[in-house]
Amino acid sequence: TKQKLWGGRFTGKTDPLMHAFNQSLKYDQRMHAADIRGSIAYAKSLTKVGILTPVEERKITEGLTAVGKEWESGQFEPAPDDEDIHTANERRLSELIGSLGGKLHTGRSRNDQVATDMRLWLLDEVTEIEAGLRALIRVMVERADKEKDYLMPGYTHLQRGQPIRWSHLLLSHAFSFASDLERLQQLIPRISVLPLGSGALAGNPFAVDREFLARELGFQSVAENSLWGVGDRDFVIEFLLWASLTTTHMSRMAEDFIIYSTAEFGFISLSDAYSTGSSIMPQKKNPDSLELLRGKSGRVFGNAAGFLMSYKGLPSTYNKDLQEDKEPLFDAVDTVSACFRIAEGVIGTLEVHPDRMRQALTMDVLATDLADYLVRKGIPFRETHHISGRAVALAESRKCQLNELSLQDFKSLSEKFGDDVHGVFDFEASVERRQSIGGPSRVMIDRQVRVLRAALDK
Ligand code: ARG
Question: Which keywords does the record carry (predicted)?
Answer without folding.
Answer: Lyase
